[in-house]
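Schema walkthrough. Field components (list of strings):
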Amino acid sequence: MKKQTEDNKKDNRFELLRELLLVDDREKFAALSEEIILREKLSKRVQPLVDEKIEDLRINFPEYFGPTITETIKIQIRDSQDEVVEALYPIMGKLIKKSIVSEITKLSDSINRTVKEKFSVQQIVARFLKGKNYDAGVILEQVFEPFIEEVFVIEKDSGLLVGNYTRGSIADKDMVSGMLTAIKSFAEDAFSKEHQNLEDIKFDNFQLTIKNFKSIYIAIATSGVATLAFKDNLADTVDNLAEIILRDRSYLSDEVKLNALIERHFIDSNE
Amino acid sequence: MIAKKVLLVGNFGVGKTSLIRRFVLNQFAEDYISTIGVRVSAKVVQYENTAIKLLIWDVAGTSGDEKIPKAYFLGASAAMFVFDVSRIETYLNIDHHLESIKTLSGLQNITIVGNKKDLLTQEELQLVVERVSVNIDLITSAKEDENVENAFLELASQAIK
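Field assembly_structure (string):
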């Protein structure tokens, strides 16, 4: 049998000692390494899912959290109105001031230009010859030029729309003419004495002028400042139109023909 | 296209507005919206190959004791009287109401509709039919969308007569 050297004997003893002393540490080491391996495996499986979720969140964040954030902001603003006003006032105040100054400058330029034009010798002579001498009206008409926005020719009793002209687009002109007739009937029933009719309705920049005839009424919505001259002109145009329609009743049953007549009368003549 | 003004008349809360909403918008609202005087809605219907635009005037009350402008009734081509089959007070004086509508509108025939069919059993409905003093044209349910279209088609047919 081969005899062991002294060094070998020592090594074995150390090995034995180490085994005896480090049993617990080895177990911990094994557990830890097992845990790390498990985590790595889990990480590899979970990572794509997490990435996918993050991407989804990035794309759909407004959809998922938009309402909640909006609601939170609303509540926050409502509960701290004073702070919001204090924070915004310097910015908003300056913007509003700037906007008002800009608009007043434009208005002032426009008035200056109109005054200069209207008080030229030629214009004064022209107005004198036309018999128009209300200068303020002329200036106002130029600055806040009135426009015919809508014209409705409506059957008096039924409220059915016979013909119309519109500058914009009304959602449902038939419904509007029906409700207008209802409002007119209501106002006449509630406030008027015998055979009085509703003639004007005003709201913001709009004025609704109503002219009543035997079987129809004509409603004209205008915007801007309607001067006396404009109103006179409008009244004449409405009377002429009504005369044509009532003389030739075929207009009442032909919407296209009537619409063309309205446009010719109100719009072309004002251009 | 022919346009006709038609009236829907009846006591408060009988479901006139619900019938119109169901017919025009295909919607039903459980909440009660009180109609202030009148509300005008429009819908185009096809009747015997003719397109008719119905301007439906939803008139609150029947202008009996209520302060309803008489002008609301003028120029109408047809009218529908609506009552609530579950409330006797809405059809108790039906003869008087019909007479009043005929006088104000100048119409001879009025379509009579009993609404809220969904609130009664078949037996209860039969009792109502027997109790109402005039012939009921249609029994409807705006909530369950029963006979609503037919009621308005009947109105359209009256309007173009």
